Amino acid sequence: MSNEPATTSDTMLTRRALVAGGVAICLVPIASGAAQATPAEMADAIRALTGGTTVKPGRVKLVLPELAENGNIVSLSVNVDSPMTDADHVKSVHIFSEMNPITTLVRFHVSPRAGRNPTLLTNIRLADSQRVTAIAAMSDGSFWSSDANVVVTIAACIDGG
Amino acid sequence: MPQPTRIVLPASAKKGEVFQIKTIIQHEMESGFRRNDRGVAIPRHIITSFVVTYAGAEIFRADVFPGVAANPYFAFTTTATETGEVVFTWTDDRGDVTTERRTLTVT
Amino acid sequence: MRVLLPVLLASLAWSAAAADERPSPPRPGVEFQSSDTRQMQGDEGANPGMLWVEQGASLWRRPEGPAQMSCARCHQDATVSMKGVAARYPAVDAASGALLNVEGRINQCRKTRMSVVPFAYESNELLALTAFVTHQSRGIPRKVAVDGPARPYFEAGRTFYASRQGQLNLACGQCHTDNAGKRLRGDVISQGQTDGWPAYRLEWQTLGSLHRRLRACSLGVRADVLDYGAPEYLALELYLGWRGEGLPIDSPGVRR
């Protein structure tokens, strides 16, 4: 077409990438040897949060898909069982990964105004199949947790375009 | 430069009603862990903080890390207390700030 | 050697049985995604593609160029004037005889009626306006004209769809007609419908045009990747529109 505008994405598909043949990805997700959190780091991060107080499973419900179609965006929902009164409420919710380069994914700070049994939604990135942990810090100083295991797959027809 | 956003919240609510607010901001959330095809690390560029106030009081805050997906989505609930302004502020690691305001009418 | 030649010639094209040329029923692209992805598409507060629809609404009103024209100056309220428009695209432009998709029509307007520079494919602006215009056809069944001046383009698209291409020597139909609904490694193969486009692709972490996806398909079979807006992709877009006749537009889609 004579009025074809210049394209902006041509640099993404170089001849080299095409000729390379294999499932060509111009952007390598994590190079081998790059940083990756360890379970020990996750334990440290949790201890930094709790000051050593025991974290009890329950009262928190972390929902993630069992199978994520793409690790770039994984839908996360976390619900906390709490009356959310001034006397008894969730102060913050922390999401941890055991495999991502950085163990803390996100921290939410909520107020009692969030209403009873509040639900928080976001999308996270997962570097690999792994377990994700949510920990809620309550106003009475207690900590409660929920885990979810996610298998991260990658699309068969990935492009790099 | 402020980034495009998408905010969904009701225009009005009854006093005492708990309602949900959904927010998305356009941001690449470059993690800093990716390399280009020459092996050079792509610099990190992420939103680091998202704060929401309602009639001056903070109702939600997120500390955001590279593990949050691109075009960050946050949905949360709050209680309708009074007619007032809801202010959404996203800050990224270059100091760029995006602010959006919506008015909530409480009947 | 003499036996090989007919075998080689026979392998150049693929064809569906006449009765099977169009899938019955045509199934929306979103049905082939995971339940999380379907949910993301269906929730207008969570669908990341809506970021571009909103930007498009803004750009629609933005005056530009020597005459300070905007889309709104001629087309007024898009929710009225654009309703149903994208559902009949691509379409032949009566004046020039060219086949235009929504992107092409937007750029043609910019150039000839607004006297401003066209937007590049995959620019935020073109994505936003395309998403905004297409979104106004939400729920309206696709119906493209394939007769009269559209006929040659339709036939070209039909031939393209049936032609084996690339190092993998695959025709579109071999996946999207013969194997729709079956698995390709972890994925479920779709019918290759266009009802959800432009779409937010999880892999791209951004909204992208149909042509970006078609380029990725070409790359997928190791065929030459054609330019954005290439006549082959436009003709294919028309053919795919015919193939998906009756499917309600559901854009912006969310895809893996």
Query: What is the number of domains of chain C?
Result: 2
- CATH H-level superfamily of the largest domain in chain C: Cytochrome c-like domain
Number of helices of chain B: 0
Q: N- to C-terminal separation of chain C?
A: 45 Å
Mean pLDDT of chain B, as a whole number? 96
If you average the pLDDT of chain C, what whole number results?
Answer: 94
CATH architecture of the largest domain in chain C: Orthogonal Bundle
Distance between the termini of chain B: 36 Å
Structure in a nutshell:
Chain B is an all-beta fold and 107 residues long. Helices cover 0% and strands 52% of the residues of chain B. By secondary structure, chain C is mainly alpha-helical.
What does this structure look like?
With 161 residues, chain A is mainly beta. Chain A contains 2 helices and 9 strands, in the order H-H-E-E-E-E-E-E-E-E-E. Residues 1-34 of chain A have low confidence and may be disordered. By secondary structure, chain B is mainly beta. Chain B has no helices and 8 strands. In chain B, the strands form 2 sheets. In chain B, strands 2-8-7-4-5 form a 5-stranded mixed sheet, with no helix packed on it. Chain B has a 3-stranded antiparallel sheet with strand order 1-3-6, with no helix packed on it. The N and C termini of chain B lie far apart (36 Å). Chain C has 2 domains: 27-44 and 142-255, Cytochrome Bc1 Complex, Chain D, domain 2, CATH 1.10.760.10; 50-135, Cytochrome Bc1 Complex, Chain D, domain 2 (Orthogonal Bundle). Helix content of chain C is 39%, strand content 7%. In chain C, strand 5 (199-201) and strand 6 (206-208) form a beta hairpin.
Question: Which tags fit this structure?
Answer:
heterotrimer; A: 161 residues; mainly beta; Immunoglobulin-like; three-stranded antiparallel β-sheet; disordered N terminus; C: mainly alpha; Cytochrome Bc1 Complex, Chain D, domain 2; three-stranded mixed β-sheet; 11 helices; 7% strand
Topology, please?
The complex is a heterotrimer of chains A (161), B (107) and C (256).
Chain A: H1 15-19, H2 39-50, E1 55-57, E2 60-63, E3 67-68, E4 74-80, E5 90-97, E6 104-110, E7 119-124, E8 130-138, E9 143-152
Parallel strand pairs in A: 1-9, 3-9
Antiparallel strand pairs in A: 2-4, 4-7, 5-6, 5-8, 8-9
Chain B: E1 5-8, E2 12-13, E3 18-25, E4 47-54, E5 57-64, E6 73-79, E7 84-92, E8 97-106
Parallel strand pairs in B: 2-8
Antiparallel strand pairs in B: 1-3, 3-6, 4-5, 4-7, 7-8
Chain C: H1 4-10, H2 35-42, H3 50-61, H4 71-75, H5 78-81, E1 91-92, E2 99-100, H6 102-112, H7 124-135, H8 151-162, H9 172-176, E3 183-184, E4 187-188, E5 199-201, E6 206-208, H10 210-220, H11 231-243, E7 253-255
Parallel strand pairs in C: 5-7
Antiparallel strand pairs in C: 1-2, 3-4, 5-6
Helix pairs in contact in C: 3-7, 6-7, 8-11
